[in-house]
Design a protein that fits this description.
Number of domains: 1
Number of helices: 8
Largest sheet: 3 strands, antiparallel
Distance between the termini: 40 Å
Strand content: 5-15%
CATH class: Mainly Alpha
Structural class: mainly alpha
Radius of gyration: 20 Å
Helix content: 55-70%
Strand order of the largest sheet: 1-3-2
Length: 166
Amino acid sequence: MTDFIQQQGPAFLAHLLRRLADELVQGAADWYPTVGVMAPPRTISTLLALDEHGPLGVTELAGLLRQSHPLVIVWIRKLTQLSLVRSSTDPHDRRRTLVTLTAKGRSELVRIREALVVMERASTELLELSGTDSLEMLWAIERNCRELPFLQRLQQATKREAGAAR
């Protein structure tokens, strides 16, 4: 049976990428507990960023991870519920909330870093099966979207189509 979304062609790139992301995230979510990691897969980068950069504000985290502010707030809530991070008011700017790793969060990072070694091996294998430059190709798409956002590409294509129709 053919894949309906594949039949739709490049217009469904986002759908394909979402399916792939969902597969990878769900696989990690099912596997992480078996190796002692309790943090949800989508929050791992937040813990790593806090470990590398120290306490950060939500806006700084969102910028560093290139994720939306509301999404990072959701992740911080999950990590707070698991006692892996805590939030406090910045003593230098009372309007700003700082997010900090807890001792439990730091010990979780030891297990995360061990798990990421295996994650990298499995991901590398998957990428190699897909072609030699598949990861670079994905980074190139992301980089090209930063240089000219997809919305602008759609607007330009609309203008070209309108011009061609005349």
